[in-house]
Amino acid sequence: GAVVSQHPSWVICKSGTSVKIECRSLDFQATTMFWYRQFPKQSLMLMATSNEGSKATYEQGVEKDKFLINHASLTLSTLTVTSAHPEDSSFYICSARPGLAVGGTADTQYFGPGTRLTVL
Amino acid sequence: SQKIEQNSEALNIQEGKTATLTCNYTNYSPAYLQWYRQDPGRGPVFLLLIRENEKEKRKERLKVTFDTTLKQSLFHITASQPADSATYLCALGNNQGGKLIFGQGTELSVKP
After folding, report:
1. How far is A115 from chain B (nearest CA, A)?
2. Whole-angstrom distance, CA of residue A110 vs CA of residue A24
3. pLDDT tens, position by position, A74-112
4. In this structure, what are the phi and psi dihedrals at residue B83, rounded to the nearest 5 degrees?
5. Beta-carbon separation of A110 and B46 below 8 A
6. Where residue B39 falls among pLDDT bands split at 50, 70, 90?
7. Which of A15, A23, A79, B105 is the right S-S partner for B89, CB 3.0 to 4.6 Å?
8. Which chain A positions have a beta carbon within 8 Å of B95's beta carbon?
9. Are A24 and A3 in contact (CB under 8 A)?
């Protein structure tokens, strides 16, 4: 149980285009999802916290107009990188936390397999 | 600002030995600390959680200690195997929203 998927697993796009990454909790309802970015040999950096049905909360330094997050259902959150540039090339990872009503706890989150974005 | 440091150098050990990884932190009072395993090109996989009021946790060949005075956690893998080769991440969390702060990870290589 507690499986989180991401789609696509990798994507290559041209500079200036937008890319959408999906994060799905397959066997549980996730009231909260987190989006991270990881550059090579570096730690995971939290970009934003997404709560179902409300606006995402972005970490300091993360442009909310560039990284659009939508958490429209209890099993799906999307991250759209708008007008992508080569410096946005990174490994994007989401995690999902089960809702408290279904036994989730604040210290539990399940990670997806990641999406490798390469912007040419 | 909050800072987490893990063994910066890769750790190379012989199969069967105990691997010990270190996680130190400053300017933070976590409610809990977690250890994850990450393989190349993959997302992190949860291993163990230890809370601020716990000194030690064990799970099979894994052992974690947590010293809030030293602001340090040690992660041990006993009887290490080549399949244990991966990057290990520590992460700190509080009880406010479940946000995690990750260390940069330590790459472990277990040679047969």
Report:
1. 9
2. 11
3. 999 999 999 999 999 999 999 999 877 766 677 788 999
4. -70, -15
5. yes
6. very high
7. B105
8. 106-107
9. no
Q: Which residues of B79-106 are buried (b: 16+ CB within 10 A; e: fewer)?
A: ebeeebbbbbbbbbbbeeebbbbbbbbb
Residue A117 to residues A2, A69, A77, B89, Cα–Cα distance (Å): 25, 16, 17, 22
Which residue type is seen at B10?
Answer: A
- Give Cβ neighbours of residue A119 (< 8 Å, ≥ 6 apart): A12, A13, A14, A15, A84, A85, A86, A87, A88, A89
- Number of A to B CB contacts under 8 A, please give it: 59
**Which residue in A has a C-alpha nearest to residue B4's C-alpha?**
A43
Q: How far is the C-alpha of B6 from the C-alpha of A109, rounded, in Å? A: 22
